[in-house]
Amino acid sequence: MAIDEAKVQEFVGKAMADLGGALTAAQVVIGDKLGLYRAMAGAGPMSAADLARRTSTNERSIREWLAAQAAAGYLTYDPASARYTLPDEHAAALADESSPACVLGGFQGMSAAIRSTAKVVDAFRTGAGVGWHEHDPELFVGTERFFRPGYNANLVSSWLPALDGVVEKLERGATVADVGCGFGASTIIMAQAFPRSTFVGFDYHPASVEAAQERAERARVSDRVRFQVAPAKSYPGTYDLVTFFDCLHDMGDPVGAARHVKSSLRPEGTWMLVEPFAHDRTEDNLNPVGRVFYGASTLVCTQASLAQEVGLALGAQAGEARLREVLIEAGFGRIRRATETPFNMVLEVRV
């Protein structure tokens, strides 16, 4: 059967672009770790010698990195002066961790996830999954860096206010459980905003809990925040607010976890469930955001769930309808999409 050679070449072009994207991801990690973007931010046009001198790096290696970054569209290049510039708009994403546009953590985390490809290949054959704790530790660091800018931009200003009566409780003084807290970014942000409330972060991963406690101490909120190793299905205590940030879909038994949330809520308590944004139909997620989330889910999220009991494997693009099925099965009767961003949906869940 004859094939359309023009379409073959068109697809090869796309594949080459994706290959270039994979290589660019490694270049971003290099630029981040060596402080190259920070050195270029706001500095105007720079030569390879300028950047190498400023960052104490090898000029020949820097020259190649600069050309690769210009070819990728991350830097601009002036052939007359042989100088490169990091545009201010790009610097917001590549050099400023306080910016909601910062993408450095995503590159760091997903580059680490790719290093587990051999494990994932085996897991495809066996169905045994790959546990979160089995990945390169850079995944944990990168994931926190990736989510933190969005939490800083939205959690206190829009997500919590979208919940009925929750901000008022937090201002008076409430007890909060942040389940699947990782390095504690979300927990600490809430504690800084609501000093009369107390917060407990739970995670099954001991190294993350240790890192979270250290960060709480550095942020000077350890008087009202503590972290504890505990799984989502058996963390202790009762709470006015329980939060799950981008983690329910990673759990092997999300229904069991949801049932435990129900038992841990005080009367009229609220569960804030934050999940990656997704439409309910696969075809509606075939876009750049869905591409990232499906890709991350293939390497990390789905495998993490398969490695646990039940292994329901919701995936990072489960969608609201599928999440509602889980919540209803667990016994919740009031479920409302409180708000959303292009990257997250926030569900208010009550008994």
Descriptors for this entry?
seven-stranded mixed sheet, 16% strand, single chain, alpha/beta, Arc Repressor Mutant, subunit A, 351 residues, 9 strands, two-stranded antiparallel sheet, Rossmann fold, 2 domains
Quickly describe the structure.
The chain is α/β, with parallel strands linked by helices.
What does this structure look like?
The strands form two sheets. A seven-stranded mixed sheet has the order 5-4-3-6-7-9-8, with helices on both faces. Strands 1-2 form a two-stranded antiparallel ribbon. The chain has helices at residues 5-33, 36-40, 48-55, 59-71, 88-94, 104-114, 117-126, 138-159, 166-172, 185-193, 206-218, 254-264, 288-306, 320-329; strands at 76-78, 83-85, 175-179, 198-203, 225-229, 239-245, 265-276, 334-340, 344-350. The chain has 14 helices and nine strands. The protein has 351 residues and is an alpha/beta fold. It is globular. It folds into two domains: 5-93, Winged helix-like DNA-binding domain superfamily/Winged helix DNA-binding domain (Arc Repressor Mutant, subunit A); 105-350, Vaccinia Virus protein VP39 (Rossmann fold). The N and C termini lie far apart (59 Å). The model has no long low-confidence stretch (mean pLDDT 97). Helix 3 (48-55) packs across helix 4 and helix 8 (138-159) runs parallel beside helix 10.
